[in-house]
Amino acid sequence: MELEDVPGVGAKTAERLRELDEPVETLRRGDVAAVASLPGISTGRAARIVRGAIRARHDDPGGFLATDRAREVSDAVLGLLQERAVTTHAKRRLATLYPTASASRIAEVSAFAERAREREIDPAVLDALADVSPVERPGDVTVRDRCLATADAETYREAQAAFPELSVEVVEDARGLADLARGYASVVALDEAFAGVAVEGDVTVDPRAVEHPEEHVPERTLAFFATNRASLRAAAAVHRRAGVEAPIELDTLEDALDDLAADGSVAGDEELGRLSTAVDDLDAAVSTAESVANDALRGAIEERDVTIEGADLLSLVERGAGVDSLLSRELADEYAAAIGAAREHVADALALRDDEIEIATRIFGDEPTYPVERREEAVSRLREELVAERDRRAAKRKRDLAGRLADLRAGATDLVRDALELDVELAVARFCEEYDCTAAERAGTGFEIEGGRSPLLDVAFDEVEPVDYGVDGVALLSGVNSGGKTSTLDLVAVVVVLAHMGLPVPAESARVPAVEELHYHAKSQGTLDAGAFESTLRDFAALAGGADAKCVLVDELESITEPGASAKIVAGILEALHGAGATGVFVSHLAGEIRGAADYDVDVDGIRAVGLEGGELVVERSPEKDLLARSTPELIVEKLAGESDDPGFYEDLLEKFGADGT
Ligand SMILES: Nc1ncnc2c1ncn2[C@@H]1O[C@H](COP(=O)(O)OP(=O)(O)OP(=O)(O)O)[C@@H](O)[C@H]1O
């Protein structure tokens, strides 16, 4: 399939889609989230594009939902499915389910739904899913202490493309390489010609570096895992909890993730932690050590009476010598103790190793001075040593960890994808369980629903009374006000929509016709003006004339114009649909008149009121075949006739109801 073959995808959108790693595969998978991640493509548009791709794959012309109300019902059903998904990704994926006439698409979704229904619904899995989100690309990584070097222009271009994280330098010869090695902690030479060239510094030669860039940029692998750490952990938890097979060894992944900090550095390495802290705390530790020594020395001097011989005093004054010599003579021991304490402080505070202590010792000299001062060059030397050791260790640990993680990358992506897919399946499983669904049969004309319960009703689902209803061809449905006629149409629409999505339906059993279009006309809000009336008539003319198999549900069409005219118009529409072999239900309060005006024997079904209880109608929700149900006014007149001491007036009225059959 070419991207441009997808309905709604023009050259510009196709170009956008090509920014995805595998655009065609992404569309095939129905990955709305991936499509929506592209700049300028909204979630709604992404869902339409993916649906378009599905349609292209199934050669499906679309257009199943032929009216606003049909679309509303479909959206409402989808909303109920989406409510049961935990992740945004799954909600978006569910938006690719749509009713269709394509048998192959319906079969595809049915197979998926069957698998989904086998999933066990475990709240702990749903909890774990909350932290799973699609794998993201890490932000741009820049590595400054490493560079690549080549003398060749072509290699230079290749390396720039393969290593966006590193700078690539052009060098003429070994001298150029040596210059680079002074400026960077490590240099990778890309030309065979540099093999064997002796250059000081961390220089390696790897002419095949572009073939395995991750080895030279472990940061790339680490950034991927650091960015997706939370989601990967959650996806692993989902797999564990759900007991589903994972595409990678979960322990291995989790152990490796334990060693990775959120910023992509290596975590949990004590030695690296020690070195990093030592570098950070070096200045502070040396300052404190100075204070330690000076405080000790000041104390010692203050406590001491110094006797000085005249000759010495003269020598001091004449030579302008400092008191240092006096210090060394009089307080040599105290000085040694103070310096010892300072050195010990540095070693302890920074947790230095023996070889580092050796360098640290030189920070404070043995020659007595007061006040005691650090030797800056010794401090710098120690800092360089610690920084070099820290960087060496970090680089090695990074390489090791990246090596462990690199092999897990493809599996990790699949792990997250599988967890998200499980969310889609669990949403379908929950929908089916919570609405007691069964697979519907699509065959014949007319429909047969047993124990159907509409999830769109305004009452709690467990209070919905199951409805049995079936029609052959096109029937009229009569019934008292608020008897449940509209709700019955909704139920039929829900069942037809779900069955054509390929999903189970909320009924004990159901057969619906395989149709190409669902036309559901909601009750109009009152008499239409001439223009609107004309266009409604045109719609029905087109509907009655088309050759496609249809399901037509119409709620009280009579209210569009005067009752007398309405009955004739509806009768005419019924005749045309009957002739076209359509399946349909027309709810009407004028069922008697319509039947009278039609030129064939129209089936009239009725929702029967079994009585009035405390002013409330008690109805039998399942329509009865071949019943012209009595209207609410008739029921009230009948009730009054029964209750009145002088029922004459009411009985006359009742006779009139009987006379015109309504
Ligand atoms: N199967 C059912 N189970 C429980 N309650 C129902 C059922 N069907 C309908 N109802 C309740 O009855 C109310 C009225 O239903 P509905 O609007 O379908 O009646 P109607 O016959 O179309 O009314 P009208 O003639 O006024 O258009 C619903 O809002 C709902 O509360």
From TrEMBL:
One of its GO terms (biological process) is mismatch repair. The keyword DNA-binding applies. The keyword Cell membrane does not apply. Residues 472-662 form the DNA mismatch repair proteins mutS family domain. Gene3D superfamilies: 5' to 3' exonuclease, C-terminal subdomain, P-loop containing nucleotide triphosphate hydrolases. SUPFAM superfamilies: P-loop containing nucleoside triphosphate hydrolases, RuvA domain 2-like. Residues 372-399 form a coiled coil. Its cofactor is a divalent metal cation. GO terms for molecular function: ATP binding; ATP-dependent DNA damage sensor activity; hydrolase activity; mismatched DNA binding. Pfam families: HHH_5, MutS_V. SMART domains: MUTSac. It comes from the Archaea. InterPro entries: DNA-bd_MutS2_arc, DNA_mismatch_repair_MutS_C, MutS, P-loop_NTPase, RuvA_2-like. Keywords: ATP-binding, Coiled coil, DNA-binding, Hydrolase, Nucleotide-binding. ATP binds at residues 479-486. PANTHER family: DNA MISMATCH REPAIR PROTEIN MUTS FAMILY MEMBER, DNA-BINDING PROTEIN MUTS2. Has ATPase and non-specific DNA-binding activities. Belongs to the DNA mismatch repair MutS family. Archaeal Muts2 subfamily. This is DNA-binding protein MutS2.
